[in-house]
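Reader question, answered in our methods column.
A reader sent in the components of a multi-part assembly and asked whether the whole thing could be modeled at once rather than chain by chain. We filled in our standard form and ran it. Here is what they sent:
COMPLEX SIZE: two components
ENTRIES:
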Amino acid sequence: MSSHPATPAPRIDTLSPAETPEGIVLSLRPAGLVSRTMAFLLDLFIRLILDLVLVMSLGAFGGLGGLGFGLMLIGMFLIEWLYPIAFELGRSGATPGKQAVGLRVVMDTGLPVTPAASVTRNLLRVADFLPLAYAFGIVTMLLNRDCKRLGDLAAGTLVVYAQPVVLHDAPPDAPPLAPARPLSQGEQAAIRSWAGRAKRLTPERFEELAKLAAPALPAEVPGEKPRGASERLLGVAQWLMGKRT
Amino acid sequence: MRVDGLAIVLRPRSQGEACDLGLALVRSQAASIWRCFTLLLLVVAVLAMCTVELGGIVPILILFWLKPWLDRSLLFVMSRAVFGEATRWSDLWRARRQVFGGQFLRTLLWRRFSPWRAYTQPVEQLEGQRGAARRKRVKLMLNDNRGAATALQVTFAHAEAVLGYALIALVWWFAPENRNAGVWDWFFHPDAHAAGQLGLDIATASAYALVVLFLEPFYVAAGFAMYLNRRVVLEAWDIEQEFRRAFT
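And here is the structure of the entire assembly that came back:
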C-alpha cells in the first residue's frame, strides 16, 4: 500500500504506563468511550430500578404526602451520589455495570482507588454532565489519551480493563531444538505466543507465519526426515520454554 | 497489507479495547482527518441546508442518510493513517472513483440500516469483496462479535444525541441572564421571534452537522480498529507484525 516511513515514529497503542516505587513499569489498559458507555447504561438501568423500588416502597407506607415525598427525594439523592462511591470502594473496585463490562477504577499509579479520589471523581460528575447528559464527559473521553473524564483528571483515577485478553493456549508438544542464533526477549515472546496460537489458526496460516521466522530456525539435520518450518519452530518454542530433551 | 508497516501496535485486545485504539488513531492523525473531512462535510451540509424550505427536518435527514457515504472518505483516510501516512485533499481526489463512487446504492439503501456498518465497512471498501464472498466474509467477521459491533453503534448513537442536545442547550446556557427566557421561548414558538422558524431550523441543522463533523471520524476509526482486531484473532496479525519486525 505504501512505503515504510523513513524514521519510525512510536507506534500508536492504548497502554498507559505507570511506574511503581520499586521502579517497575506497569502497563495499565485504560478503557475508552465505548466500554464505559455500556457500563454507564447498565448502571443507569440499575439506578432507575432502585429508584422505582424506593418510590413504590414509600408509596406503600401511606402515600407520598409531605414527609414521604421528602424521604423519596433524599433517597434518590443518596442513590444517585453514593451508588458509585460505595461500589468503587468495595472489593471489585467497580460498579455492577463496570463489573459486567470487565472494568475497574484504579488510581493513575495502578493502586486501588482511595476514598478521597472516589468521592472527588463522582462529585465531579456534575461537571461532566454539563450542559446535558455527559456532553463534556464524552468530549474529554474522546480527546484525552487515557480516556479520562473531568472527574478522573481531578481525582487522578483511571478506569481500566480488569482482565487481559489471552489468545494463546498451551503450545503443542514437539522435540526441542536450539534456535539458529541467540534471540532477544521480544523475539522469544513472539515465538512463544505464535506456538500458543496453534489451535486457533489454520495449519496453512500457522506454517506461513513460521516461515517468517526463518532466521531463527535451526538448519535441517542431513539424513533425518525433513521437517516443516512450523514443526521446527515449535521445537524452538519448546526449547525456549526450558525443555531440553 | 504490509503488517510490519503499521503505525499501530497489534496485540490481543477485547473489541472494546480495540475501539479505544481507533480513538487513539484519530487523535494521532487528527490534522489529516479533519483537513479532508471538514471540506467534504461542509459541501454536503451546505447543499443539504438548501432544502430547508421543504421542511425543517429535511437537511438533518439528508445528512443522516448520507453518513455511510461520508464514512467512505473517512475510512480511506484511516486506512492510510494506520500506516502513519497523512492524507491531503489531493490524495482523496486522486482516489475519487474508488472512494466516492463505489457501491453507491448499497451504501445508501440497505447498508444505511446496518447496526454494524462501521465494523463491516472495511470488508466492502478495503477488501473489495462482492456478492457471496462478501456475505461469507461479513458472517465470519460477525461471529461472536455481533454484541460488540452493536455496542459501538449504541454508544455513538447516544453520543450523537447527547452532543446534539448539548450544543442547542449551550445556546441557552450562554445566553445573557435576562435573555435566556427568550431563547427558551424561541425554541418553542419560533414564529414570534426575529430569527423565526427558518433560523431555528438552520441552527439545529448546523448543530447536527457540527456533531457529525466531530464524532464521525471517531466512529469510523473505532469500527476499523475492531475490524483489525478481528483479524488479529483470526489470522494472528499481531504475531506476523512481531515476526516481520524481528526477522525480516
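What stands out: Chain A touches chain B through 56 residues (CB under 8 Å). The first strand of chain A starts at residue 16 and ends at 19.
Send us your own complexes using the same form.
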